[in-house]
Design brief:
3% strand
């Protein structure tokens, strides 16, 4: 399958596929003219790569995880690494939740300022 078809089926840009290849996440064979050719399984692999990125993993971590997904074997230290990533993501979620609560308070006060903040009418 050519790069444009994989991009269309996976819902990503051609540029994203090139990036995945550069990062060692998506192998491609090259034809005589240098064109990339992917197996039909590339579409599913791109979906998994996107899920892992959406989970907050860096490309280095995704590169470590992918072989385990396809082989079923987990190298030493991978589970601990993923657990650490989960903690990092949970901390970020807590930070974002706090920021949202602060923003909600600002919005509420802007819509209906407390009486001590209102200007007296002249």
């Amino acid at each position: 399958m050519r790069i444009g078809e994989v991009a269309r089926r996976a819902g990503v840009s051609v540029r994203a596929l090139r990036y995945y290849e550069e990062q060692g996440l998506l192998p491609a064979e090259r034809g005589p003219g240098g064109q990339r050719h992917y197996p039909s399984s590339a579409v599913d692999r791109v979906g998994l790569i996107r899920q892992l990125f959406a989970a907050g993993l860096a490309s280095r971590s995704v590169r470590e995880v992918l072989p385990s997904v396809y082989s079923g074997s987990v190298p030493p230290g991978l589970v601990e690494h993923l657990e650490n990533e989960r903690v990092r993501i949970s901390e970020r979620i807590a930070e974002l939740s706090e920021a949202r609560e602060r923003l909600d308070a600002v919005i509420a006060n802007t819509r209906n300022p407390p009486s001590e903040c209102r200007r007296p009418r002249e």
